[in-house]
């Protein structure tokens, strides 16, 4: 699998939160050759299972990467124009973007602005509210009314851009980059042995309600959960402690949302694999699906691995392909280590004198 | 066989033509029009001139101008992390810049205008502030300063990277097919590549009774300097300036009533007066009468909006000038939208107006004629 090509394919596939059928189908096809069994559930979560080699009962390791993406939703058809609401999209990037409206047909459009020639000084200084913006499809009012209705989705149309030094920019790298890392990890596992069952999950719903990750735990019954998601890349305007160097390797979460032994274990693995890493302080929670999985799984030990990404929640999320590859290696190596003894080692130990009988 | 194919407009609008760096556009236009003209030359400010001789025995000379440049950014500094700092070269709309894909320098390196994630800045006062252009940074993927400097120099131009498209349900481009008669198009640099394309179409329909001097000008967006120079040398009896002009026929915030200066689809735009020039009344009247006679739609732009090469070209020689524009939404940003019927009607209006222009230019104005105004 070429990481760059797969990321391009998945980035350019439509998959807004709540309408993930297209991206689910694409990921299903990619998972099939790498798993013993793949299924899509009613929410369109895609679940691949690779059976481990250990004896029964084998630990069950869920590796989760959400596949939904931020989106716009049509709020009114106003003559030849469409009003919309952004969901999780940074509204400051929308003016001047090409978009695609997922109506009865897939319709291209643009979000424009008043010409600067006519703006007041006040207008020039302040970004307009997203409610003041419109999508221009070039269609007349009648055609538009037949093709688009309130509640239809729209996405920024963006093909992947290749920058210098194996860095790329594009839409929905949050979190298709992690889906690609998951696929690449499974590919590594084809050549390796892993005692545990690996449940590879591309889930829905992260950018809105978390329904995907939360709702699936009951059926998966994982003993361990690894959540893969993008995290902030170093760039002007991002606090130093929370902006991670591109090409700086996996970012391992540390904090109450993460089982402490898992953080240690991932860091040890990075050292033994000789890949650089960074620790992301998560003093409250991780801001990822791990918040839900930690609880909904009944407290299964959870860890978060991030890929440093610039311009998060914009159509030009930017990352180094090397980091995707490294996360894949780390996940594969971790899966190779998880056995019954490892799981046993995660129990919080009570003092000797109060051991239960 | 027409030159105005879909592929022609795609190439013309996608080429980079920053102010003072219009080479790629000039070369492409020169190659395109060479077979249509009697002579062709370039001056030291980069203007491209092309002469098509007229059919009259002692032909007058009419200059027709369209500018080749587009608003751009300009590399001012490469910082320690390998990011590019920029300044504006022309009146680029600062509200459109965050998170856009651009092309940098002669290698057309792809770059991204960074947008710091909103997660770290929830203060609406700060957050909704339009960033100053000198606070923006462009990321070309460089790992550090040296890495960036190997590919980019101070002074390199930065342009939007936007594909040309037919809009609507079927957006498939056929490079060799003529432009559709109606429908809408989107892309970059419609201001003023649509003017350039109009001028190419007019050359294709030549000859006219007069000598047509086509002038593809430079540096319009930074002070009309190409047109100023051309106006001094051109020795024209009259001039027409072709533009892609502002169009603001969008609905505003819900409930707000607006009075747009032009509307898409209402025909080519005539100017009576803009911020810098008053159009020559007889030329304007000639355009109006031509439109009425041939039943060509037209619209007037609000007065006092924008400025064009007209004031540059006429400044030193006082040549009578008229302005005909294609209205374009969202100009001075990454992606504009125009209506093809406006574009085609502009060409129709001009070529019809050119057919009986010399009678207008011949002789002095009699006091009796003044009563017609």
Biggest sheet of chain A, in brief?
Answer: 8 strands, mixed
- H/I helix tally of chain B: 11
Mean pLDDT of chain A: 95
Major sheet size, sense and barrel closure of chain B: 11 strands, mixed
Share of helical residues of chain B: 25-40%
Radius of gyration of chain B: 22 Å
CATH homologous group name of the largest domain in chain A: Zn peptidases
Largest interface: A-B, 63 and 68 residues
Number of strands of chain B: 17
Protein architecture, described:
The complex is a heterodimer of chains A (357) and B (373). In chain A, 56% of the residues are buried. In chain A, a hairpin with a 2-residue loop joins strand 4 and strand 5. Chain A is 29% helix and 25% strand. Chain A is α+β, with helices and mostly antiparallel strands and 357 residues long. The mean pLDDT of chain A is 95. An eight-stranded mixed sheet of chain A has the order 1-2-12-3-13-16-14-15, sandwiched between helices. Chain A has a six-stranded antiparallel beta barrel with strand order 4-5-8-7-6-9. In chain A, strands 10-11-17 form a three-stranded antiparallel sheet. Chain B has two domains: 264 residues, Aminopeptidase, CATH 3.40.630.10; 84 residues, Beta Barrel (Elongation Factor Tu (Ef-tu), domain 3), CATH 2.40.30. Chain B contains eleven helices and 17 strands. In chain B, the strands form two sheets. In chain B, strands 1, 2, 3, 10, 11, 12, 13, 14, 15, 16 and 17 form an eleven-stranded mixed sheet that branches. In chain B, strands 4-5-8-7-6-9 form a six-stranded antiparallel barrel. Chains A and B meet through strand 7 and strand 10 of A and strand 7 and strand 11 of B.
């Amino acid at each position: 699998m070429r990481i760059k090509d797969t990321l391009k394919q998945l980035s350019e596939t439509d998959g807004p939160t709540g309408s993930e059928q297209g991206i689910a189908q694409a990921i299903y096809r990619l998972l099939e050759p790498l798993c013993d069994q793949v299924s899509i559930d009613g929410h369109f979560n895609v679940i691949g299972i690779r059976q481990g080699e250990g004896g029964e009962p084998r630990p069950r390791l869920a590796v989760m990467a959400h596949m939904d993406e931020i989106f716009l939703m049509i709020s009114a058809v106003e003559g030849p124009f469409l009003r919309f609401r952004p969901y999780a999209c940074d509204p400051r990037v929308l003016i001047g973007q090409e978009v695609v409206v997922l109506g009865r047909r897939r319709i291209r459009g643009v979000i424009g602005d008043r010409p600067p020639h006519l703006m007041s000084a006040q207008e020039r200084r302040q970004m307009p509210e997203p409610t003041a913006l419109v999508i221009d499809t070039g269609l007349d009012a009648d055609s538009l009314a037949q093709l688009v209705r309130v509640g239809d989705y729209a996405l920024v149309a963006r093909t992947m851009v290749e920058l210098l030094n194996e860095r790329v920019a594009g839409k929905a790298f949050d979190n298709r980059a992690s889906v690609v890392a998951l696929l690449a990890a499974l590919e590594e596992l084809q050549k390796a042995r892993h005692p545990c069952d690996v449940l590879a999950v591309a889930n829905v719903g992260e950018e809105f309600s978390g329904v995907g990750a939360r709702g699936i735990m009951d059926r998966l019954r994982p003993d361990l959960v690894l959540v893969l998601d993008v995290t902030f890349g170093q760039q002007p305007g991002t606090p130093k402690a929370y902006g991670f160097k591109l090409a700086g390797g996996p970012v391992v979460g540390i904090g109450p949302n993460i089982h402490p032994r898992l953080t240690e274990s991932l860091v040890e693995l990075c050292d033994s694999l000789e890949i650089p890493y960074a620790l992301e302080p998560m003093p409250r929670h991780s801001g990822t699906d791990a918040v839900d999985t930690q609880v909904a799984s009944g407290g299964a030990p959870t860890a978060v691995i991030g890929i440093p990404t610039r311009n998060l929640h914009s159509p030009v999320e930017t990352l180094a392909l090397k980091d995707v590859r490294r996360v894949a290696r780390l996940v594969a190596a971790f899966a190779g280590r998880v056995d019954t003894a490892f799981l046993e080692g995660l129990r919080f130990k009570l003092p000797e004198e109060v051991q239960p009988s | 066989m027409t030159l105005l194919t879909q592929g022609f407009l795609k190439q013309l609008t996608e080429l980079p033509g920053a102010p003072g760096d219009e080479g790629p556009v000039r070369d492409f236009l020169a190659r395109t029009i060479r077979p249509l003209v009697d002579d062709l030359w370039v001056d030291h400010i980069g203007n491209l001139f092309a002469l098509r001789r007229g059919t009259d025995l002692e032909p007058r000379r009419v200059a027709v101008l369209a500018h080749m440049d587009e608003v751009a950014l300009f590399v001012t500094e490469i910082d320690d992390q390998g990011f590019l700092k920029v300044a504006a070269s022309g009146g680029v709309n600062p509200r459109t810049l965050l998170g856009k894909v651009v092309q940098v320098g002669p290698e057309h390196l792809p770059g991204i205008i960074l947008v710091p994630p909103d997660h770290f800045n929830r203060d609406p006062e700060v957050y909704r502030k339009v960033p100053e252009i000198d606070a923006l940074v462009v990321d070309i993927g460089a790992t550090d300063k040296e890495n960036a400097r190997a590919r980019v120099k101070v002074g390199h131009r930065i342009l939007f990277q936007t594909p040309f498209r037919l809009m609507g349900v079927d957006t498939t481009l056929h490079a060799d097919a003529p432009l559709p008669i109606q429908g809408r198009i989107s892309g970059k640099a419609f201001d003023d590549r649509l003017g350039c394309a109009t001028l190419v179409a007019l050359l294709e329909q030549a000859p006219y009774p007069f000598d047509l001097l086509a002038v593809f000008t430079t540096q319009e967006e930074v002070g009309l300097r190409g047109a100023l120079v051309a106006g001094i040398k051109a020795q024209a009896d009259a001039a027409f300036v072709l533009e892609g002009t502002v169009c603001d026929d969008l609905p505003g915030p819900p409930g707000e009533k607006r009075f747009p200066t032009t509307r898409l689809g209402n025909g080519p735009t005539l100017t009576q007066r803009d911020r810098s020039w008053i159009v020559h009344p007889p030329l304007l009247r000639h355009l109006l009468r031509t439109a009425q006679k041939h039943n060509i739609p037209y619209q007037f732009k609000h007065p006092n909006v924008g400025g064009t090469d007209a004031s540059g070209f006429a400044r030193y020689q006082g040549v009578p000038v008229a302005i005909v524009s294609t209205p374009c939404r969202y100009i001075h940003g990454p992606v504009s939208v125009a209506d093809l019927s406006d574009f085609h009607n502009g060409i129709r209006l001009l070529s019809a107006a050119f057919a009986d222009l010399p009678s207008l230019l011949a002789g002095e104005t009699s006091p009796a004629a003044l009563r017609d105004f």
